[in-house]
Structures are given as C-alpha cells and as structure tokens.
Amino acid sequence: MSDADTLSNFDLREEIKEYWGMRAETFDSQPGHEIFSTQEHTAWKNLFKKHLGPGNSRRVLDLASGTGVISHLLDDLNFNVTGMDWAEPMLAKAREKAKTRGRAIRFLLGDAERTMEPSGSYDAITCRHLVWTLVDPASAFAEWHRVLKPEGRLLIVDGDFVNPGWFARLLATVSKTRALFGNQPEAEAKPASMMETHRNILSRVHFSNGAKAEAVVDLLRDAGFRQIVVDTDLKAVHRAQRRHLPFFKGLERATQHRYAICALK
User: Fold this and answer.
1) Using CA atoms, how far apart are residues 142 and 132, in angstroms rounded to an integer?
2) Among candidate residues 24, 37, 16, 64, the one with its CA nearest the CA of residue 242
3) In angstroms, rounded to a whole number, what is the distance separating the alpha carbons of residues 201 and 213?
4) pLDDT at 255
5) Which of 155, 161, 158, 87 is nearest to 129 (CA)?
6) What is the mean pLDDT of the chain?
7) Position with higher pLDDT, 204 vs 201
8) Using 50, 70 and 90 to split pLDDT, how confident is the model at 9?
9) Alpha carbons 139 and 79: distance in angstroms, whole number
10) How would DSSP label each residue in 183-233?
11) Rounded mean pLDDT of 146-150?
C-alpha cells in the first residue's frame, strides 16, 4: 500500500468516525437502530441464541456498539459484554444506559479494525451494520480472528444497502409516481446534508458497490474462519421493525439483501 493510500484511508476513517459521532444524537430515535417493541427484542434475542448459544457469562466483544443497543441485549442473555465504538458521543449514551439500568457493561473507545485487545480473549464477537462501512475488511476480519478464542464465534448482521432488489425498485417508482400526482413521498429520516455525507463515505469504503454476503464470506474464509453459515431468515426482526416504519420504508427494508453470518475460529 502506498503512502497516499494510507493517508486516504486515515482521512476516510476520520470522516466515518465524525459522521457517526454526529448521528449519536438521533440514533436511538430510528427503527433499525434502537429496539422499540418486545417483539423485536425477542426476535433479536432468538437470532443471537440461534448462532451463539447461551450466554453463560461468556465474554463477547460487541464491535461498533454505538449507543449500546446490542450490547444491552447480549447482557440480557447473560453474556459478559464489552462494547467498543470509536465515536465518543455514542459511547456516552451507551454508558448512561448502563448506569440507568444498573448493568456492568464495559464500553471502550476503539477502532473495530484495530481493537488493541489481547489475542484469544473473547468467546464471541458481534457486529451489526458495521461491515459495510469497513475501509479494510480483510484486515478487520484477521484482527477479529486473532482476538477470538479457539472455537470462538463471530456473528455479523449486515446487508447490501447499495443494490435494491426488483421490489424495492418498484417501490421507488411508485413513490415517484405519487409525487407527480401531488402526493409527497415519505420524508427521509436524515437531513439532506447528512445524507450527502453518508453517500460520499459509502462511495469510498471497500464495499462501495454493496456488501453482498458471498463477498463477505470469501474474506472471512481468507482470514481463517471456518464453518461459515449465511442466515437470511431475518423475517421476525423485519416484521417487528415494520410496525415503527412508514409503510413503503418497511416494505423496502424487508426486500433488502440483509443477512446474519456466523463463522467459527
């Protein structure tokens, strides 16, 4: 890698860090980030139990933990949880939640691509909606492999948020048609400036063309992971989230290429 490439990646990482820091203020108000119902809470719990098994006080590292939504869910499942995020405003909210709930969750400021955690120190690693933002996923996956104990499990929950399926494209056409006839399309949750920043960052990350599950699996295998399972049955989560989303947005979410990938060290 050239010096120019290194500098470019450093700048991009800083931009991503700043972006998520700005998102902290409204993060918990958005379906898909915070959990708003018992049904969704149960759906997430079932997904984690399905792939990680019972908590039994096992150590789990929740990467890009944000405001601690998944960290708290894992704590409910009796895991010994460490959350890591590189946006201090996110961590401040996560720590406040832990204080309010009286939970001893450890939250660290750190980079998911370079955790600085000891080798072989975690029974499991989780991350939700992180992989699509990675600048260097190959290095990140090698790092996660290093940090896991032998037989440790990695669970990635992510998706291809770039390439819509045919039904999502149909919904976009319907939305434009409604606008032509005077019906305003559903408003975006983020301000225009934030959306532009998001698009700009997305255009420069590794998965700028979409984080397809197959591409993620290939990189995981190269990093040394085995017994890799792709689970696309997230219907229970999507069904619960739709109750708190505008109608078309809910349908769009359900038709996106979203998945959970579980891999073993």
Assistant:
1) 16
2) 37
3) 20
4) 73
5) 158
6) 84
7) 204
8) low
9) 26
10) PPPPPPSS-HHHHHHHHHHHTTSTTTT---HHHHHHHHHHTT-EEEEEE--
11) 98
Cβ pair 59, 106 in contact under 8 A: no
Q: List Cα–Cα distances, 202 to 19, 167, 208, in angstroms.
A: 12, 23, 5
Distances (CA, A) of 196 to 32, 35, 180, 242: 20, 26, 24, 25
The reported pTM is 0.83
Cα–Cα distance for residue pair 61/78, rounded to 1 Å: 13
Phi, psi of 228 (to 5 degrees): -85, 125
Structure confidence by residue, pLDDT tens digits, 40-69: 999 999 999 999 999 999 999 999 999 999
Q: Would you call 242 helix, strand, or coil by DSSP?
A: helix
Q: Is 112 exposed, middle or buried (0-12, 13-18, 19+ CB in 10 A)?
A: buried
Amino acid (one-letter) located at 73? L
CA proximity to 151, closest of 115, 112, 117, 124: 124
Structure tokens at 68: 């601690």
Let me know the angle formed at the C-alpha of 47 by 44 and 52, rounded to the nearest 5 degrees: 120
Where residue 119 falls (left for φ over 0; alpha for ψ -120 to 50; beta otherwise) is beta
User: Domains, the chain, ranges and CATH?
Assistant: 3-264 (3.40.50.150)
What distance in Å separates the CA atoms of residue 15 and residue 200, rounded to the nearest whole number?
Answer: 10
Residue at 206: amino acid letter: H
